[in-house]
Write a structure and sequence with these properties.
Elements: E1 5-12, H1 16-27, H2 29-36, E2 38-46, E3 63-64, H3 67-72, E4 76-79, H4 87-96, E5 100-103, H5 106-123, E6 127-128, H6 140-146, E7 152-158, H7 161-173, H8 177-186, H9 195-198, H10 201-215, E8 225-226, H11 234-242, E9 245-257, E10 264-276, E11 288-295, E12 299-306, H12 310-330, E13 352-362, H13 367-377, E14 382-395, E15 398-409, E16 412-413, H14 414-426, E17 430-440
Parallel strand pairs: 1-2, 1-4, 2-3, 4-5, 5-6, 8-10, 10-17
Antiparallel strand pairs: 7-9, 7-11, 9-10, 11-12, 13-15, 13-16, 13-17, 14-15
The structure holds NADPH dihydro-nicotinamide-adenine-dinucleotide phosphate (NDP), the ligand N[C@@H](CC=O)C(=O)O and sodium ion.
NADPH dihydro-nicotinamide-adenine-dinucleotide phosphate binds near residues 13, 17, 18 and 86.
C-alpha cells in the first residue's frame, strides 16, 4: 500500500458550492491521492450557522464557525463563502500563513484582486480561481496558459447562469421574469442577493476578470459598462422572437481603436442584446454559459457548459485544488500575474455595433420620412424598417392612432446612435422610444 503524505485542506463555506466540494472530496479521496501523490485531508468546513441545512450528508464534526483557527493549520484554503468581507481578510490570512488559495469569489477578485494577487506574489503563494468565471467551464486556465502565446482580440459570451435561465424561460416557455428568477434561486444558481445577477454586477465582475486576463492588463470593475435585464419585458422577448432573435445577457471584451484619438484601447461591457436565432449563442439554454474567444492566430474558439450550480462549480474548484496540491508535493513557482500592458479602457460611446430601435409613432403620413432623416443626419445607416402592432394614445384628450416601428441599423458608432435616439425622442411624430437593443453576433 502506498503511504501518502497529507495536504491539509480547509474549506470556508458549506453552501451550494461548498457542500458539494466537501462531498466530492470525501467521496473520491483515493482518486485524489493517486492523482496528486498526497492525501487531501479536509480539516474542516467553516460556516456561519452550524444548524443550516446542507445539500450533502457530511460529517457533523467537520463543521466549525471558527474560520481563523481552521485557516491557521491549512496548506490550501478553499474560499466559497462569497461576499467581500470577511472573505478578503480570510484569504489574506491564508496567503500570509503560507497557504495557497482556491476561490470562486468573482465579486472579491474584481474588487480586491490586485491586492490579493500582490499579497500572494510577495510570499510566493498561488491564487486559483477557475470557478469564478463561467462555473464548470475551463476558461481561466485557457486564457492564462493555453492562449498565453497568442493575442486575444475579442471575447463574447454568456457568463451568468441565472439571467440566462430567466431569459431562456421567458423565451421558450413564456414564463414571467419573477417566476423564472424564483426557480433559478431555488436551484442554487443565483447569488446570495440575486440583484447581483439581475442587474449584471456578477457578469460585470466576470467581464473585468476575463478582460484583464485576455489583454494582460488591469480592467477595473468600475470601467466595465453594465446594463442588467430588469427592463427586458415579456413583450420585448416576444418581439425579438418574431423578428428572428433571442435576448441574451452578453459580456463583450474587445480591443478597439479609440475613434477620438486613433489609439488602441479595450472595451469591456455587459448588456442584454439581440442574437440571431441561427447564432450558436441562441442555443445556450437554462443556466449554461458559453464564451467565444477570438485570437489572432488561433481564430475562433468556443467554450460551453454549466455556468452555475453546486456540483458543476465544485468541479472547477476541485480541478484547482488538484493543481494547488500537486504544487505542494512537487514544488515549483506557479503562475504569476501577467499585467504588463497598459491599455486605456474606452467608454461605451466608442463601440461599434448594430442596433434595433423600437419606436411608438403616431400613425400619420410623413412619419417614416422624418424618422429616417434623423438616422441619416447622424450618420447611422438603416438596414431594415418594420411596422408592428397598432394602438392608440391620448393626445390632448383625443385618441390618436399609433404604430410600432422597428428600425434595424447597420454597424454604427454608439455615440452616433445615442445622438440619433435623443433626436428621435424630440420628434412630434414619435410618441415614445420603446427600446434600444444592441445586436451582437454576425
Ligand atoms: N452557486 C453557484 O452556482 C456559483 C457560485 N459561485 C461563487 O461561490 C461562492 C459561494 O456561492 P454559494 O455556495 O452559492 O453560496 P451559499 O450562500 O450557498 O453558501 C455560502 C456559504 O458560506 C458560509 N458563510 C457565509 N458567510 C460566512 C461567514 N462570515 N463566516 C463563515 N461562513 C460564512 C455560509 O454559511 P451557512 O451555511 O451557515 O449560512 C454558507 O455555507 C460565491 O462567491 C459565489 O459567487 C461561483 C460560481 C457558481
Ligand atoms: N450567480 C452566478 C453563479 C455563477 O457564477 C450565475 O448565475 O452565473
Ligand atoms: Na470556469
Amino acid at each position: 500500500m502506498i503511504e501518502y503524505r497529507n495536504v491539509r485542506v480547509a474549506l470556508l463555506g458549506g453552501g451550494t458550492v461548498g457542500a458539494q466540494v466537501a462531498r466530492l472530496l470525501l467521496e473520491h479521496q483515493e482518486e485524489f491521492a493517486s492523482r496528486v501523490g498526497a492525501s487531501l485531508e479536509l480539516t474542516g468546513i467553516a460556516v456561519r450557522n452550524l444548524d443550516s441545512p446542507r445539500s450533502a450528508d457530511l460529517p457533523k464534526e467537520l463543521f466549525t464557525t471558527d474560520a481563523e483557527s481552521l485557516i491557521l493549520g491549512a496548506d490550501i484554503v478553499i474560499e466559497v463563502m462569497g461576499g467581500l468581507e470577511p472573505a478578503r481578510s480570510y484569504i489574506l490570512q491564508a496567503i500570509n500563513s503560507g497557504a495557497d488559495v482556491v476561490t470562486a469569489n468573482k465579486a472579491l477578485l474584481a474588487t480586491h484582486g490586485t491586492e490579493l494577487f500582490e499579497a500572494a506574489e510577495r510570499v510566493g503563494a498561488q491564487l486559483y480561481f477557475e470557478a469564478a468565471v463561467a462555473g464548470a467551464i475551463p476558461i481561466i486556465r485557457p486564457l492564462r496558459e493555453s492562449l498565453a502565446g497568442d493575442r486575444v482580440k475579442r471575447i463574447m459570451g454568456i457568463v451568468n447562469g441565472t439571467t440566462n435561465y430567466i431569459l431562456d424561460k421567458m423565451d421558450v416557455e413564456g414564463s414571467t421574469f419573477d417566476d423564472a428568477l424564483a426557480v433559478a434561486t431555488e436551484l442554487g444558481y443565483a447569488e446570495a442577493d440575486p440583484t447581483a445577477d439581475v442587474d449584471a454586477f456578477d457578469a460585470a465582475q466576470k467581464a473585468s476578470i476575463l478582460a484583464s486576463l485576455a489583454f494582460h492588463t488591469t480592467i477595473p470593475l468600475e470601467s466595465v459598462h453594465r446594463e442588467g435585464i430588469r427592463e427586458i419585458s415579456g413583450k420585448t422577448v416576444e418581439l425579438a422572437k418574431k423578428a428572428g432573435y433571442v435576448v441574451k445577457l452578453l459580456a463583450v471584451c474587445e480591443r478597439l481603436t479609440d475613434p477620438a484619438t486613433g489609439e488602441e484601447g479595450v472595451s469591456a461591457r455587459v448588456y442584454p442584446a439581440l442574437i440571431s436565432r441561427e447564432h450558436p449563442l441562441a442555443a445556450v439554454h437554462k443556466a449554461n454559459n458559453a464564451v467565444f474567444v477570438e485570437a489572432e492566430a488561433a481564430g475562433s474558439l468556443m467554450f460551453y457548459g454549466a455556468g452555475a450550480g453546486g456540483p458543476e462549480t465544485a468541479s472547477a474548484i476541485l480541478g484547482d485544488l488538484v493543481s494547488a496540491a500537486r504544487r505542494h508535493v512537487i514544488g515549483g513557482p506557479g503562475l504569476g500575474a501577467s499585467t504588463h500592458a497598459n491599455l486605456p479602457v474606452l467608454p461605451i460611446s466608442a463601440i461599434t455595433t448594430r442596433y434595433h430601435v423600437t419606436l411608438s409613432v403616431f400613425d400619420r403620413p410623413g412619419v417614416l420620412a422624418s424618422v429616417a432623416e434623423e438616422f441619416a443626419k447622424h450618420g447611422v445607416s438603416v438596414e431594415l424598417v418594420e411596422q408592428g402592432t397598432f394602438g392608440s394614445e391620448a393626445v390632448s384628450g383625443e385618441a390618436a392612432p399609433t404604430a410600432t416601428l422597428v428600425i434595424g441599423t447597420h454597424a454604427a458608432l454608439e455615440s452616433d446612435l445615442a445622438a440619433t435616439v435623443s433626436a428621435l425622442a424630440q420628434l412630434d411624430a414619435v410618441s415614445s422610444v420603446v427600446s434600444v437593443l444592441r445586436v451582437e453576433g454576425a
